[in-house]
Amino acid sequence: MSVPMIEVEHLVKQYGDVHAVNDISFTVAEGEIFGLLGHNGAGKTTTIRMLTGRTLPTSGSARIAGYDVVSQLDLIKPLINLVFEEPNLYERLSGRENLRFFAELYDVDAKRVDELLRMVDLTEAADRKLKTYSSGMKQRLLVARALVNDPRVLFLDEPTRGLDPASARELRDLVAGLSDKGTTVFITTHYMEEADELCDRVAFLSHGEIVALNAPRELKLRYGQRTALVLLRDRREETIRLDNPADAVRLEQWMEQDDVLTLHSQEGTLEDVFIELAGRPL
Amino acid sequence: MYPRMIQSIFKKDLKDAIRDSRVLVAILVPIAIGVLYNFMFNDTTPTPSATVAWHADGATRLLDMIQTVSGDSVKLTFDQQPSADDVRTTMEDKDADIGIVVPANFDAQVAQGATPQLTVFLPKTSNFAGNYVAAAIDPAIRSLAGQQDPARIEISRVSSDTASDAIFDQVGLRRYFVLFAVILEIGMIAMLAVPIILTEEVEKRTMEALVLVASYVDIVIAKALVGLAYIVVAVALLLGVTRVVPERIVLFVLAALALGITMIGFGLLLGGLFKSANQLNTWGGVVLLPVVAPAFVVGLPIPGWLQTIFDFLPTSQAARVMIDSMMNASYFGQAWLSFIVIIIWALAAYALLVYRLARRTT
After folding, report:
1. B13 three-class SS
2. What is the pLDDT of residues B310-323, one digit of tens each?
3. Chain B, 213-272: which have a CB under 8 Å from a chain A CB?
4. Nearest chain B alpha carbon to A48
5. What is the tens place of the pLDDT at every residue in A115-125?
6. Are strands A153-157 and A184-189 parallel, antiparallel or unpaired?
7. Which residues contact B266 (CB under 8 A, 6 or more apart)?
8. How does residue A281 score in pLDDT terms, banded at 50, 70 and 90?
9. Helices within A147-236 (DSSP H only)
10. If contacts are CB pairs under 8 Å, which of residues 122-181 in chain A contact chain B?
11. Nearest CA-CA distance, residue B281 and chain A, Å
12. Closest Cβ opposite residue A105 in set B16, B205, B213
């Protein structure tokens, strides 16, 4: 995971006086799963729009697989794809027709369509009109469409929003599998647990700026509280800080008196980290 | 610009858009209007006809004389009856416009200067054909009597001095109104169906997925080609079902294509102004009306200032060329001037479109 597949340097997007994205820089290595987390309006979608060539940056630069997203967009297009947040599919066409259309656009063999339908478990429903699909089926078709050109970089914009837990789990497994095969994954999500589980690294975006960027464990260690919950013999619950010498003395006393029934470490979550950095929960 | 992308989007739209009831209605309504006009109007004014129920006791030349006097102004059908009573019954049954009972030796008596009685039955209510034949009886009998006409009447037909009569005489009422439907068809596809196809892509955000792989230029060209394909098929179908065949087919095709391409340009611009396809479907007709209406008064008497304005519009000019293409001899002429006007509008539409696409891309 050493080759940078996405390189972003001082990227800015300004709409009038509003800085939707303000001077962000980061790199994403090949095969890495990178999460961009933030509130609505933090600049996540604008960042994806710039990286996929649908919006021009006001300043700064971004490169995908070494190609500039502004001047070499035609070279980037075959290498990337995106799972959209909303089911932007052709409702009057069938699932198979939707995929075939994009396979033609990407000049991909029609066999790939059947392969993808099997992968997302839509073979039986493939010839039905999309208006008969459930939201979960549509989301799976969106994923299949995004994989039609076997992209080297896959962007996912809130991919599990609205999915039932089982479908969300399937999707996360699929994404993890893609990463194992070398696909670089750039994901935005509101679900901190999802980011924690999936992402090699995450960046927190607040008001268009990156306020933290690291591996989830490192962020939790750095920003999370190191505490433990102690259940005492008299059924009292006490929270102790692991970095507080006074709490260490209290714990030692309880143990000497055989008052401790259970002891649970309380590792901080990404949610805690985000609240500490952004001042409010997602 | 990638032809493969354009071809893929074109194929998809051709199949997908026709499943949209709004697009289908935009295509089918002008065809239905054209078919309706085809049944309502004739290219030539039909000659009035009259059925004459008659009975004669013996031979008579009176009916031949009536035919001669009537000439080709009325198409006469003579229905011989076995008796005078049968003539009356035929009239009562409304199976004839006039009944004539000719007595025996009528021709000889008239020739000798006698005054035999000729019985004529007319319907109680006024009847143009019956009255016309009744008016022809007197001169017919005078001929039988060998009387000289008191004056020689020379009838010559002249066109009315109103322009509308002149153009209808030239091109025929039926063909004129079918052309009306052709221009409506081009207008509805270009200014309603095509923008609906484009706006729906933006509204449903499928455009976002398209531009991940294709460029805006590819997409817009594909949409324009879809509109043009629909125009070609729909106009051919319209002319086919109405059996209107232009005398100068190349001129007609060029005018239809030029107008189609121009109006599709404006239709694509229009598509960018509306946020939803339903909004466009509701208000598109309001935009379409002033654009298409000038074509429907071409050759008709309208105020000079209005005519001057309409002369600068592509729909009026295309209508002039199309009317001329219906005949071997031009009624309006100067087709090249009409094409120049249409091309200027086309250049304006596509220049604006390129400007908007460039702004969207940046």
Report:
1. helix
2. 989 999 999 999 99
3. 213-214
4. B212
5. 999 998 899 99
6. parallel
7. B190, B191, B291, B349
8. low
9. 165-180, 192-198, 216-223
10. 145, 149
11. 18
12. B213
**Positive or negative torsion for Cα B69, B72, B75, B78:** positive
Query: For residues A183-221, b (16+ Cβ closer than 10 Å) or e, as one string?
Result: bbbbbbbebbebbbebbbbbbbbbbbebbbbbebeebbe
Q: Which of B344, B58, B37, B292 is nearest to B172 (CA)?
A: B37
| A to B CB pairs, distance under 8 Å | 54
Residue A157 has which token pair? Answer: 């914009």
Of B8, B15, B204, the CB nearest to A105: B8
Write the residue in A52, A81, A88 that is nearest to B206 by C-beta: A88
DSSP B139-162: HHHHHHTTPPPSS---------SS
- Most B CBs within 10 Å: which of A69, A88, A130, A186, as the mutation test of the B interface? A88
- ipTM for the complex shown: 0.83
Give the pLDDT confidence of B100-152 residue by residue, as tens digits: 999 988 988 888 888 888 999 998 887 788 888 888 888 888 888 888 777 77
Question: What integer pLDDT is reported at residue A223 of this predicted model?
Answer: 75
pLDDT tens column, B260-318: 999 999 999 998 888 888 888 888 888 888 888 888 888 888 888 988 899 899 999 99
CA B109 to chain CA mean position, Å? 54
**Given its phi and psi angles, is residue A232 left (phi above 0), alpha (psi -120 to 50 degrees) or beta?**
beta
